[in-house]
Each structure stands twice: as structure tokens, then as C-alpha cells.
Amino acid sequence: MKRLSLNTGLSYSIRGFSCVKGEPFEVEDGLAEQLLATGRFDEQPVIANPAEELNTDNTGAGAEDEEPEAPESGAGAGAGVEDGLTASKVSQMRNADLLALAEEKNISLEGCSKHDEYVERINGVLGLVDFSKLGLE
Question: What is the pTM for the complete model shown?
Fold first, then answer.
């Protein structure tokens, strides 16, 4: 087994394998030799315990590796999640309920005149995604 990382390009894929830049991975020796021959990969030291990789001592604040925190309340990505709202539930609401929800979450519906426009604006502001429609786009 060898540990490699992509150094050229944002991603790389061949039949049965893909990777992205910035995420080291382990592969069998034969595949590693093929990938190294492309000149797009660097060999990394193999880490016996994957937890060691996460516990490295960084002198910086580490803010670039940490995920941003969700807003405490109000509008913003994911603001409807704690209410149990989903994109599907929002799309099934009546216009009066949508208007009340928008007012409660301080979402402007200016320029919206139809149900679909209300739903799209509210879902967008709250960061809700209807996964059943993703394959259709």
C-alpha cells in the first residue's frame, strides 16, 4: 500500500478510481506506480493510525480546517432545520402558511407572486434542498 496525494489539477479519475486534490489516499502498489507515472501525484508517508493525522500540532488558529458554525437563530443556511422544516414540507404548504413562515423567519418575498416563487425563495434562504428534484436538473 502507498499513500498518495494529487498535486496537479482539482480531481483525477480513471476506471474504478477517483480522487480530489488535498485529500491523501491509499492505493495498492500497482495502481500507485501507474498514478505516479502520470506526474500528477506525490507519494506521502504512510500513517499507521489514521487518528494521528487528525491530531497534528498546528501553531495556527486552525480556522481554515474547521467547519463554519451555523447561525444561532434567524435566517441563514440551515435556519429551518431545527424547526423540522424540509424542502418537501415547504413546497406542500399553502400560500398563507408560506407568507407566515417568511414573516417569522424575516424572509423578504418581494418580487414573488406565485406559490413556486415563494417556495423557491424560502428554501433558498433557509438552505433547504429538495433531493427528489436534483436528478431532474
Answer: 0.40
Q: What is the pLDDT of residues 51-76, one digit of tens each?
A: 555 555 555 555 555 544 544 444 44
Q: Are 110 and 103 in contact (CB under 8 A)?
A: no
Distance between start and end Cα atoms, the chain: 40
Q: What is the pLDDT of residue 82?
A: 55
- One-character DSSP codes across the chain: -EEEEE-SSSEEEETTEEEETT--EEE-HHHHHHHHHTTSEEEEPPPSSHHHHHT---SS--TTTSPPPPPSSSSSTTTTGGGT--HHHHHHS-HHHHHHHHHHTT---TT--SHHHHHHHHHHHHT---GGGGGG-
* Rounded-to-integer distance, Cα 66 and Cα 86, Å: 26
Per DSSP, what are the bridge partners of residue 5?
A: 42
Q: Which set of grid coordinates corresponds to residue 55?
A: 491530531
How confident is the model over 80-131, as pLDDT tens digits? 555 678 888 888 889 989 899 888 889 888 888 888 888 888 888 888 777 6
Contact 121/107 with Cβ under 8 angstroms? yes
